[in-house]
């Protein structure tokens, strides 16, 4: 069931103003959306748990953008699942859009940069069975599931252009976090910097600044692309919400 947009009241319509919104557009529980989002949250948490079991350095593990973005996705989808199950108002698109952007960054960077030997920043290595399972859950399953939820289970038009730059706050803050953490660790420490394109020992601070600008522009372009796509994608209506107003509303 697609999340319904919020009801609106025509200015000057006194009689309409006296009618509760719930009488015009029934809130309604959305069990399919709730179940799907709960499964996505479970997949993200399961991937993190599997990585935790197989890791001998939890500080290093939780410094990865992959882990952090999946935990954010799990929180957002669990919250959204509860609202869908109880028929409560949907989450703000600022929140759900941020979760979608971050998990999209995780999936795209992994598949096109970190797993690509020709990128210059590959992190290919032998993995244990647990690591392989976690890898698929965190880099493939959750990004695809988040995209499906956005495209099929939510109403379009909730993302605003100002959201695109607001969502970049976390990725921008991740840069000093990774650099400060690396500076506090002894040189030669395994996993001192979480990703090759943030490795000061390999590229120096000037090279890291260049990488940060390139990736930052790419992330902003992705945020804009998601925002624009959300404005033009079709509204996949269901019989139950045909009486809903056509105005855009918050997603999830």
TrEMBL record:
This is Integral membrane regulator. It comes from Streptomyces caatingaensis. The keyword Transmembrane helix applies. The chain crosses the membrane at residues 32-50, 62-81, 93-114, 134-155, 167-185, 205-229. Keywords: Membrane, Transmembrane, Transmembrane helix.
């Amino acid at each position: 069931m697609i999340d319904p947009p919020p009801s609106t009241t025509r200015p000057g319509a006194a009689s309409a103003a006296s009618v509760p919104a719930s009488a015009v557009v029934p809130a309604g529980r959305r069990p399919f959306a709730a179940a799907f989002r709960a499964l996505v949250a479970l997949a993200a948490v399961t991937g993190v748990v599997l990585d935790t079991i197989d890791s001998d350095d939890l500080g290093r593990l939780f410094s990865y953008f992959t882990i952090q973005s999946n935990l954010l996705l799990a929180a957002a989808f669990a919250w959204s699942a509860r609202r869908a199950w109880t028929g409560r108002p949907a989450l703000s698109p600022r929140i759900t859009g941020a979760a979608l952007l971050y998990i999209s960054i995780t999936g795209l960077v992994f598949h096109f940069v970190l797993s690509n030997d020709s990128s210059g920043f590959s992190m290919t290595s032998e993995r244990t069975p647990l690591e392989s399972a976690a890898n698929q859950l965190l880099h493939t399953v959750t990004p695809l599931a988040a995209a499906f939820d956005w495209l099929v289970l939510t109403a379009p038009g909730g993302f605003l252009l100002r959201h695109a730059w607001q969502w970049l706050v976390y990725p921008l803050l991740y840069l000093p976090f990774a650099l400060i953490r690396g500076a506090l660790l002894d040189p030669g420490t395994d996993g001192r910097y979480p990703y090759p394109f943030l490795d000061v020992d390999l590229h120096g601070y000037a090279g890291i600044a260049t990488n940060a600008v390139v990736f930052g522009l790419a992330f902003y372009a992705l945020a804009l692309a998601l925002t624009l796509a959300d404005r033009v994608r079709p509204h996949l209506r269901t019989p139950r919400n045909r009486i809903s107003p056509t105005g855009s509303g918050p997603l999830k």
